[in-house]
Design goal:
Blueprint lengths: L3 E6 L6 H14 L4 E4 L12 H8 L3 E6 L2 E6 L5 H6 L7 E6 L7 E4 L10 E5 L5 H19 L14 H17 L10 E5 L4 H10 L8 E3 L6 E6 L4 E7 L3 H8 L5 H11 L2 H4 E5 L12 E3 L6 E3 L4 E3 L2 E3 L1 H24 L1
Parallel strand pairs: 1-5, 1-6, 2-5, 6-7, 8-9
Antiparallel strand pairs: 3-4, 8-10, 10-11, 11-12, 13-14, 15-16
Helix pairs in contact: 1-4, 4-5, 5-6, 5-8, 7-8
Amino acid sequence: MQPTIICVRGPSGSGKTHLIEAMAPLLAREGLRVAVLKRSHHLLDLAGKDSDRLVSAGVAAALVHDAGGAALFRQPEASLTTLVGLLPDDIDLALVETFRPERYPVLLAAGEEPATGETLLGRFVPAIAAPEAEALAARLMALTRARSRAAAPAPARKVHRCAGAVLGRRLAAYGAALLGIEIPRTDHRLYVLCENDGCAADALISSTGCHPGNRTIRFTYEGKLAATFVDTESRQAVRVHAWGDLRDRAAELYPDADRHTGQMLAYEALAETELFGHRTVELPPVPVRRPGHARCVRCEEEIDGDAAIKAGEAAICRPCHAAARADHTQESRELTQEEEAR
């Protein structure tokens, strides 16, 4: 599985390397194997040396080693995804020093603004103090461990085994990881607003531990494989959605497999950023303990207090309120037509 990728973004001199130096021993102490990707403004290879001549001649890669270590030289302008793919298989967390936004969660230098689509995990200053560095390291540890649950065996609650269930399970793991929350939950800290139903929703419920009975998940059917995850403690929310070309990607990766098998295999194999997009969103209304009940003045049915629409001292349910608005609109249209006919 691809390591968890976190960007450490800021201009030169903002403290990116100092922050990583402060976090590295803390992360290693917890058993995480960490890699750092850093762009150099200086040439790494020496012009005219054998490795430079070989790469210039067109070889895909040249590995140079001595008693102290090894260096791999490749053709220039490799993408971040390609570079991460060069890391050893046992790396848990890859920290990317960068000055430009990428499609990964970010630790951001003070004074910089998050770009559209960036998920902000925290901020740092050039001379960050030990407690602040420890807090950021703890967040990265929680995210890495939560993300690893995406590859865990199926949860205890039986979920239909299909491509939708695989996506639902990975959606849950990624959403919780972006917030730094471990799942499944047995409390009310995580709240999920799901935009679809079916097997993906079943997997989402099973993986997160959120369910309608304790009001920690709600469904608003939009026909999209997407969900908003809310950390009710930190008051942060992130919306995660599946990319629209996943079926095509599956067909390209497994052209000889039947459609369902190919999708299951692809959705297990692809990295999170290849499966999902995400963005930080405003905090949606989060259910609280039911504030009593009311009776609709129109249909006379009972309504939960937090779902009632107040009209002075009276209450009206949402369907009746929508119907009343539609009736008012129709009456206004008919009056206008009568006036025009005169």
